[in-house]
Structures are given as structure tokens and as C-alpha cells.
Design goal:
The chain has about 100 residues and is mainly α. The protein has a domain of about 60 residues: 434 Repressor (Amino-terminal Domain), CATH 1.10.260.40. Helices cover about 65% and strands about 10% of the residues. A two-stranded antiparallel sheet has the order 1-2. It is elongated. About 15% of the residues are buried.
């Protein structure tokens, strides 16, 4: 959760927004924005889009956070990880970060 909090804080500072301005521009409740900034909760995709727009960044700015979530899911579910690699080997290519790797 800290990854997203750090990225959001950096985007807010780079955009020269106060916390109150971020709350106003995003339209997200004060309680939720503070919980995102503290790293105690994670936003849904729709709120990521609102926060990105408020900070004048692309939602892709938060891709490290999304990638971190995906890695955690795969680490907790080895069968899913095996399935992903099995399909990748079956198709003889694997896509990561919009780059295709071909065996």
C-alpha cells in the first residue's frame, strides 16, 4: 500500500496541490484521500483515474502500484502463476510492459 501512497504524494507535490486542493479537484472524500496518502487503504480504479486527473498525470503514472498488486496476487497463488507461464509458453510469447518476448 505504501507504493501507491508514495506515488500519490509525489504526484500531488509535483502538481503543486495542497491536500485540500487534491480533495476538491478529485471529488473524493477527505477521509478516503487521507487514507490513500497514509497508505492505509487502496483506491479502486475509478478513484485512481480521478486522482490522476486532479494531479494532471496519466492514470498510467500509478502503474508501479498496479504491477505490485498483480505480483502479490501471483505470489499468493502459485497455480495461477503456473497457468500464466503455461499459456505464455503455449503461445511462445510473453508480454510484459507492452514488450513482447518470443521464445
Amino acid at each position: 500500500m505504501k507504493i501507491f501512497a508514495e506515488q500519490l504524494e509525489a504526484a500531488r507535490i509535483d502538481s503543486k496541490l495542497s491536500k485540500n486542493q487534491l480533495i476538491e479537484k478529485s471529488g473524493i472524500s477527505r477521509m478516503m484521500v487521507y487514507s490513500y496518502l497514509k497508505g492505509t487503504s487502496l483506491p479502486k480504479e475509478e478513484n485512481i483515474v480521478k486522482l490522476a486527473k486532479a494531479c494532471s498525470v496519466s492514470p498510467d503514472y500509478f502503474d508501479d502500484y498496479k504491477l505490485g498488486r498483480a505480483v502479490k496476487v501471483l505470489e499468493k497463488n502459485p497455480a495461477l502463476l503456473n497457468e500464466v507461464f503455461s499459456k505464455a509458453n503455449h503461445h511462445r510469447e510473453f508480454r510484459a510492459n507492452n514488450v513482447y518476448y518470443v521464445n
